[in-house]
Specification:
- This protein is mainly β.
- The protein contains one helix and ten strands.
- The chain has one helix at about 1-15; strands at about 20-30, 40-50, 55-65, 70-80, 85-110, 115-135, 145, 155-170, 175-190, 205-219.
- It has an eight-stranded antiparallel beta barrel with strand order 1-2-3-5-6-8-9-10.
- The longest helix has 15 residues, at about 1-15.
- The chain is elongated.
Length: about 220
Amino acid sequence: MIKAFSSVLYIGLCCYTLGQISISGGTGILNGVGTGSKPLGFHLGLELPRSSDLTFYVRGAAYLPSGGADTNYANMTAISLTTVPYTLTVPYQNRSATYYFEGGTRSYMLNDYDNGFGLYGGSVLGVGINQTRKEYEDYAWEGKYLPSNGDERKGNYYYLALGIQGGMKYTIPIRGTIYFDMTGTYSVLGFANNATGNSSLTYSPLNFLFSLGYRRDLY
């Protein structure tokens, strides 16, 4: 994730040599419909004006891990035939974290991109990664047992989403811009790399992201 955010900033610095650019950062909440989870997250972004009221933007966000309320149980089988007991049951909980990247265009209304109060909206293309990890309560079995069904401890779910965004902003001369926006996306493509990734607690085909932050314009 650090490399991904660094790449976003690097692209921005390269674009800065070509004209105006804005760097933004803030916090937010991810609401995956039907998951019951609303993790807090943080984001960084870049915005490039194409005109006074039309911009292109990219944003990367990381949302804190969320744990399930239910306890699950995994059947373990001993690596050695001489181990006693040969099988045992270990309780565990799933914890999932989300990393999300989006980009698109924004059209500004009421005021220009860098002037006063305004509303904005546009289309969004997003790519998300849900990382799920099984956290076992008892580690005494490690090195002696393996999951009977061969499940991995970690897994990812990858998805591509389309959506729309709407928001409001207020630009304070010289100081910068405060903004709030909501993005709604629907996954059009998704897959997991293993069974653990497919058990993600925070993935939903329909997501709403609420973001609050500060934007600084560079010239």
